[in-house]
Structure formats: C-alpha cells, structure tokens
Amino acid sequence: MQQFLRYTAWEMEKPKPFGLFHVLMLLVGISVCIGIAYRLRHVTKKQYVYGIFGISLVLLILELYKQLFHFYLLDAQQYDWWIFPFQLCSLPMYIGILFPFLKDKWRIPLETFLMDFSLLGAIMALLFPDDLMHRYVMLTAHAFLWHFLLLFLSLWIGFHKQGDTTTKGFLQTLPLFFMFAGIATFLNIAFHTLGELNMFYISPYYESTQPFFDLLTPIVGISMRNLIYLFCIILGAWLIHLVWRKLQKFL
User: Fold this and answer.
1) Cα four-point dihedral sign 80, 211, 132, 55
2) Is residue 98 a contact partner of residue 214, using CB atoms and an 8 Å limit?
3) Which residues neighbour 70 within 8 Å (Cβ) at sequence distance 6 or greater?
4) In the chain, N or C terminus with fewer CB closer than 10 Å?
5) Max intra-chain CA distance, the chain
6) In the chain, how many H helices and how many E strands?
7) Nearest in space to 113 (alpha carbons), one of 177, 52, 59, 26
8) Is residue 231 packed enough to be buried (19+ CB in 10 Å), middle (13-18) or exposed (0-12)?
9) Cα–Cα distance between 64 and 32 in angstroms, integer?
C-alpha cells in the first residue's frame, strides 16, 4: 500500500486561486457537470437511484485514498484530525449510500438536502479553493474531482426533478442540517484534545478558515460567529432552493 501511495505522490507547484489552472478547472469541470447531468435527466428511477449510490461509492474510495495518503506519506503515521471526513461536503458520501435502501418518502428530504446544501458547499469550495490546492498532483485532483462530483450529484437530482422544491420541502431539510451540525459540534468538543478537529468549521477552539467569517471573531466572538455562519449556510441553501423551484418548471 505504501509503495503504491509513493508511486502516486507526484509533486507540482501549488496552484493559486483564480490563476490559470483554477479558472480552467472551473470552466471545464462546471460545463461537463452541467452537460452530463442535463443529458441524464430522463434516466429511469432505478438507474438514477443506483447512479447516486455508485457516485457515493466513488466518493468513499476517493476519501479512503486521501486518508491513507495523509497517514502514510504526510503525517508520519499519525492521524491528522483536521481531515476527518465530516464536513458539509462529506455528507453526500454517507447520504447517497442509503438511497437504494430507502422508500421514496424517506429519500425525498435527502434529495432536497443534496440539491440545496451540497450544491452550496460544492460551489463555495470551488470558488474559494484554498483547501483544494496542494503541492501533490493527486491530492489536488482528488479535491477538485470530489467537489465536481458533488456538483454533478446535486445538479442531476435537480435536473431529474427529484426532491421537493416547495417551502415545506426546504423546511424538512432543516432538521437534517441541524442534526449534522450537532454531530459536528459534538465531535469538535468531545475529541478536540486528539488534534485539530474543526468539523463544519464551527469548532469553539479554532479561528474560522472561511472567507469573511474569519473577520467576525474579534467583533462578535466565536459562538456568535458560528451561529452567523450556520445561518448564512441556511440562507444560501434557501436561495438555491428558490432557483430550483423556478428552474424545474422548465425541465
């Protein structure tokens, strides 16, 4: 395993946000995601469900590679809790695995969550890619591929006219979001002595690494900053939800 990982440890100059590499990745990746998701909007329900399941398995394999790469090559076989996979952009990996085993009524709120919250997470990560850029080719490719898969996943659900674009449909996603945020908070507090654990970027022990929100701590304090951050996520997801409501009428 270590030999395989070393073989893939090709180094590169770390790209810069909004440099040529970043802009080309955005133009190509977003176009491909939109094009394929749109073309697949009429697949059968079974193909759609198992397609989401398959994408989640790919995400799981990608995450396993990233974890092993860090553990063996970058962190001297000490686990780096900063990369523990429970961020907003990690959730599709867990949610999609459940799709084939759920009835439609239980799957709909999850689809709506992915359409709204996961699309927001993918867009924000791709537009502000500091955490996506690495000095290793495979880690950089992993980060961009991961978020393009999230983008495709969300678009495919929306183009396939799944989920629930009503106000009630969005409100049904909020318990999910608060549950995931609650789990992240529990992890941040219960295991913070193990290392730098900052799930959902709302740890009470660390400065925010998110643009703009890192400026709020001296003004409002960490707790209020985190609440504002969570509120902004909900607001952003709601705005995306409204876009889907309009867009699905034309699909």
Assistant:
1) positive
2) no
3) 80, 83
4) N
5) 53
6) 11, 0
7) 177
8) exposed
9) 25
Which amino acid belongs to residue 241? H
Query: Of 5, 162, 158, 145, whose CA–CA distance to 73 is shortest?
Result: 5
What is the model's pTM?
A: 0.96
Encoded tokens for 110: 């999850």
Q: Whole-angstrom Cα distance, residue 232 to residue 43?
A: 34
Pure H helices in 128-173: 137-159, 167-171
CA dihedral 37, 38, 44, 45 (to 10 degrees): 60
Tens of pLDDT along the chain (251 residues) come to 889 999 999 999 999 999 999 999 999 999 999 999 999 999 999 999 999 999 999 999 999 999 999 999 999 999 999 999 999 999 999 999 999 999 989 999 999 999 999 999 999 999 999 889 999 999 999 999 999 999 999 999 999 999 999 999 999 999 999 999 999 999 999 999 999 999 999 999 988 888 888 889 889 999 999 999 999 999 999 999 999 999 999 88
Q: Look up residue 77 and give its amino acid.
A: Q
Residue 217, number of CB atoms within 10 A of its CB: 16
Is residue 43 within 8 A of residue 160, CB to CB? The reply is yes
The residues, ordered by sequence, that sit 6+ positions from 132 with a Cβ below 8 Å of its Cβ are 125, 126, 140, 143, 144, 147
